[in-house]
Amino acid sequence: MMDELDIKILKLLEENGRLSHEEIGKLLHISRPTVHQRVGKLEKNGVIKGYKAVVDWGKLDQKIKVMISVKVVSQSFKETAGKIIGIQIPGVTIIECQRLAGEWCMLLKVRVTSPDQLTLLLDEILRFEGIKETSTTFILSTIYEEGIKDI
Fold first, then answer.
1. Who has the most CB within 10 Å: 69, 70, 72, 90?
2. How far apart are CA 13 and CA 49, in angstroms?
3. Is the pTM above the cut of 0.70?
């Protein structure tokens, strides 16, 4: 069972996954061994699934971010999703793939270097059997993402 202290530790790690147990202890006024024990328990129980870097894709020339909604009419949704996220096109990075309820079945968050690269990706997606249609929305700016505010 998680308590308020576990939630505080999780929020700190979500904001900065590189915080040491000692730094977390100082911020929350608890001992480093207490933080170590609690983080270990959260990892063991699967509450903390992993740690990752937050990448500035714009510095890698993938400045265009889009959301692609996809209608799938396949009996094997997971297989179709696997094919889509396995697409390898230079200048294209599929960041997320979400399964949806409603009119659209899938939502992709994608970074591309150019509209031409996006066209190649859409053409490839539409080649797969079971893909009915796509709808693309260009993201103009990001205000809040991955726990980071840009306002």
1. 70
2. 12
3. yes
Instruction: Please tell me the predicted confidence (pLDDT) of residue 79.
Output: 92
Region of residue 130 (left: phi > 0; alpha: psi -120 to 50; beta: else): left
Q: Which residue's entry shows tokens 């996809």?
A: 70
Compute the chain's Rg from CA coordinates: 20
Contact 9, 24 (CB under 8 A): yes
Task: Write out pLDDT tens, residues 105-124.
Answer: 999 999 999 999 999 999 99
Task: List alpha helices for 16-128, DSSP H.
Answer: 21-28, 32-44, 77-85, 115-127
Mean pLDDT calculated for residue range 11-34: 93
CB burial string 119-138: b at 16+ within 10 A, e below:
ebbbeebeeeebbeebeeee
pLDDT at residue 136 in the model: 98
What DSSP designation does 88 have? Answer: -
Name the helix (H) or strand (E) containing 131.
Answer: strand 131-139
